[in-house]
Design goal:
Layout (H helix, E strand, L loop, with lengths): L7 E4 L2 E4 L2 E6 L7 E7 L4 H23 L12 H34 L4 E5 L2 E11 H25 L5 H14 L1 H12 L5 E4 L3 E6 L3
Antiparallel strand pairs: 1-2, 2-3, 3-6, 4-8, 5-6, 6-7, 7-8
Helix pairs in contact: 1-4, 2-3, 2-4, 3-4, 3-5
The chain binds zinc ion.
Zinc ion binds next to helix 2.
Length: 212
């Protein structure tokens, strides 16, 4: 890759953003051994933690609903409005869930050059790729949706008319609480050795390092 490239560039399965290089490998390089595994289905500890964090974030944000300077005028004045609000918010949540995975997928593609695959294993939806990502790219892939949508929804919350405040706020609750799996993975990867490679099949993540 061209060394003069600084802000953003991409070549040969290597992405560079603001001086940071991100790499991925099709095969596990020699000398690497499995050091950690996360499996939300097989491992009760991972599953409980992820759902506990999601519940805490969800609960904390719902508390805001109790005492607030913002009313929900007009959107829920009548039964018709309420039904309409429910339908609209359900559609918006579904669209959010798809876009969340698409953002993971875009970053998988940018860092590896590989087309991501998408799937659903209730209660999780996922984007995955049979590639070994270095620590930095894996963190970017994991946190991209919560950060991007977090900032975007915050901005929407400021610019939309007051009556739409809660509509956007509910989407933010879904964004933050629904991304706790990503945040949980980030917390674990952060503490792993710097040479860690991550292999993610969607609901199961394996981490390899030479420093065992
Ligand atoms: Zn995610």
């Amino acid at each position: 890759m061209d060394d003069s490239c600084f802000l953003f560039c991409y070549a040969n399965h290597e992405m560079k953003i603001i001086g940071f290089t991100m790499q991925s490998f099709k095969n596990l390089p020699d000398g690497y051994a499995l050091i950690r595994e996360i499996d939300a289905f097989k491992n009760k500890h991972d599953f409980t933690r992820i759902n506990l964090y999601a519940f805490i974030v969800f609960g904390a944000m719902m508390l805001m609903l109790i005492k607030t300077p913002f009313e929900i005028p007009h959107l829920t004045d009548t039964w018709f409005d309420m039904v309409l609000f429910s339908i609209l918010i359900s559609i918006a949540i579904l669209i959010y869930m798809v876009l969340h995975e698409v953002v993971h997928g875009i970053f998988i593609y940018l860092t590896s050059g590989e087309k991501p695959s998408f799937g659903i294993k209730l209660p999780y939806a996922f984007a995955a790729s049979p590639v070994y990502f270095d620590k930095r790219s894996y963190i970017v892939i994991a946190l991209a949706p919560i950060v991007l949508f977090g900032i975007m929804l915050c901005w929407f919350n400021i610019i939309v008319p007051t009556e739409w405040f809660w509509f956007v706020y509910i989407l933010q609750i879904i964004n933050l609480s629904g991304s706790m799996g990503d945040v949980y993975v980030f917390g674990i990867v952060l503490r792993l050795p710097s040479d860690t490679l991550a292999y993610d099949t969607g609901t199961q993540m394996q981490f390899y390092s030479k420093k065992v």
